[in-house]
Design brief:
The chain is mainly alpha-helical. Helix content is about 70%, strand content about 0%.
Length: about 110
């Protein structure tokens, strides 16, 4: 059972990193270096912090959850600004640039392995 919890936790922060790197790559390829750096920084902070949380969600403190949510909002904001930068470029195709909510990451734990 503990292994399943650890795997769910690993999936939680791996999903954050996957989305971050996908969006960062799209921005970098489009020549939006500042936006790419902002997304990468915010996403990796969110991912690394999440990786340090207890694997068992019931052991996470309210303060930890508040910090995790704040980091997720910082990433959401960086992605929103990146989306705006894409939209302001004539003829530029806008990649997906979306990030699942924190609730999505938390729901991963309920999937079971």
């Amino acid at each position: 059972m503990a292994e399943d919890m650890h795997l769910s936790h690993a999936r939680e922060f791996t999903d954050i990193e996957n989305v971050t790197l996908r969006v960062w790559f799209d921005l970098d390829q489009a020549g939006l270096e500042r936006e790419a750096a902002e997304v990468l920084d915010a996403g990796l902070m969110f991912e690394h912090f999440t990786s340090l949380l207890p694997s068992d969600p019931s052991l996470r403190t309210a303060e930890q959850m508040t910090t995790q949510r704040r980091l997720q909002l910082l990433l959401d904001d960086a992605i929103r600004r990146a989306r705006e930068a894409f939209q302001n470029r004539p003829g530029q195709v806008t990649p997906l640039l979306t990030l699942p909510s924190l609730e999505y990451y938390q729901s991963i734990r309920n999937r079971g392995w």
